[in-house]
């Protein structure tokens, strides 16, 4: 008769198997028989189908390049050295733009995309966690961002140029004003729907990266422009608000065309690679200087971020009324939610 295994030995064995990514079913397989690990061509479409829209846009292009090179290879055949080699190759192939930073962004996204694939493969028990090659390759060091807050005179030039040139200056002016007032990311405006507007309280619901949702105050003037845009261009309540003249929904490419045009009219825009994200920097810098760090944190939609100053961020959360007060100071317009006694006139 076999001697019963002591409980402490059984628990130690279970913990060791968990760390190795081995299940009891794996141990029951015949010696030499191994479950088939999929190829990149087989598994990448599975991963992409499980991702959200934002992650699919971010990783999709890089994963297609991975499939082009490694499509017939199994996930467990790739070594960390091959991962790093691929990263260097794709960095070298990256398009060189005026604001390029040596391909560091490409390298970072390649590693992040492969980690996404292997993390899911580990979760699906296709490979062991210890066999993940992407996790063993460091991402390139991210260079310091060159974005800065635009001086008042430069911001004024940009606003005027957006609203007086191009084929659709009304749309361009609306895009620029919305980003200045809300400091939102590009996806926040592109995802805005007529049903996301609270007209009475001058609020817009922003849906941004990471599946975050937040109400952001806007000025009465901007709300009027938004409602006029909806009326003139026919956006349905549950469809994208921002539309071209012919009623088609605006895409991310509109931003590229807008800032290319602004770069032709304002050489400093092209020279510095100014984009909509610079408007976010500009507004948040002003809010922080005038109303403090806590209000700027909430204005940016970072109030719940785990990356912001650790524990301190939990104690400096601003209210919606304080955000509206900062907006009133920024625009010089009253806001239904602002605290009148604390409104600071814009200089």
UniProtKB/TrEMBL annotation:
It comes from the Bacteria. Belongs to the 'phage' integrase family. Residues 145-328 form the Tyr recombinase domain. The keyword DNA-binding applies. InterPro entries: DNA_brk_join_enz, Integrase-like_cat_sf, Integrase_catalytic, Integrase_recombinase_N, Tyrosine_recombinase_XerCD. The lineage of its organism: Bacteria, Bacillati, Actinomycetota, Actinomycetes, Micromonosporales. This is Tyr recombinase domain-containing protein. Pfam families: Phage_integrase. Gene3D superfamilies: 1.10.150.130, Intergrase catalytic core. CDD domains: DNA_BRE_C (cd00397). GO terms for biological process: DNA integration; DNA recombination. The keyword Lipoprotein does not apply.
